[in-house]
Records
---
Amino acid sequence: EAGVAQSPRYKIIEKRQSVAFWCNPISGHATLYWYQQILGQGPKLLIQFQNNGVVDDSQLPKDRFSAERLKGVDSTLKIQPAKLEDSAVYLCASSLLRGEAFFGQGTRLTVV
Amino acid sequence: AQSVAQPEDQVNVAEGNPLTVKCTYSVSGNPYLFWYVQYPNRGLQFLLKYITGDNLVKGSYGFEAEFNKSQTSFHLKKPSALVSDSALYFCAVRGERAAGNKLTFGGGTRVLVKP
């Protein structure tokens, strides 16, 4: 079974630039999550989709972050404009409704 | 709001000794509880889960966890630790009644197993 695919693995951008991350979940998983993990901390949920609807985005900085889930499958997370404090690993995960989440390898973003 | 607490930033244990990583939670309704492990520069790997049934659940790599409803805890255990168990461990919870089945993680506990 293929796992959660994320790209790119690494990205370096200057502050105020924009960046986008892509995620392809495990086939059949209706729930998709984007987490932000700052070095040494636990993952913070940015947004959670159920199929292509948003069920939680309470911690998403909506003035600069946006996310969409196309046709209930792939998802993109965008940051525009980026700030230094956005430097982190962005993790995508997917799951069945109440099951365990399976994670991708993550995208390490460095904002300089 | 649901939350997870991992009170120890780091746990040090000698190889061959028992390992315990603590986790307490707060959630509406019955909890669904999970443990994950993270190795350097890797994503999170699922270890085990509690949904319902036996309070002692067994998972990957010899790990087990005990659900205690009265203490709202879900401590991770391994009877005999290996050096290769050195990693970052995260506890997570979602609530039966939580809107959208939100999955919340604790801050993590670094485990260092010394030879």
---
Amino acid sequence: NAGVTQTPKFQVLKTGQSMTLQCAQDMNHNSMYWYRQDPGMGLRLIYYSASEGTTDKGEVPNGYNVSRLNKREFSLRLESAAPSQTSVYFCASSYRGDYEQYFGPGTRLTVT
Amino acid sequence: EDKVVQSPLSLVVHEGDTVTLNCSYEVTNFRSLLWYKQEKKAPTFLFMLTSSGIEKKSGRLSSILDKKELFSILNITATQTGDSAVYLCAVDYNTDKLIFGTGTRLQVFP
């Protein structure tokens, strides 16, 4: 039982490049989330998916897109990376919205 | 504007000390308050609080919620070096959404 897994662990991009962050959970959770964590800012919600086939914007969605591929997988795409997107990205999942969330190990992304 | 404020921002103590971490919030549609511990990587879940005045306890950690005064505290007794971490408070203010505070960094020295 791996919980929530994320790939890659680290990534360096040049401005304008694109990439997809992958997230998978094996806990049969319905809800999945993407957060970014910046120094002094705490965790901020980018997008979430309450169930397979649905996605909604969070607090800071600009510059990102998501896909809920199936119940297990939720990916985050940066179409044209900017230095302001340098951050640590966490994926999380929960049984449903009113249950506690479980977090993956994070992806440290640097955009130069 | 919905917000969660944690204090202090940072705390340095010696092993054996007792610490109290604070979390106050202003949100619409409050449903629950959660505490997480973050060491090097992923935040790990500690407590979820939904009702005022009911203490939740796990070993040396305990937490309580006051919905009238809009705050929660996390107590850690007999601290150990392994308690060194950032402690995050989050409030569930709508279906599927959490708003996080910026955290309290606790350092416990031998």
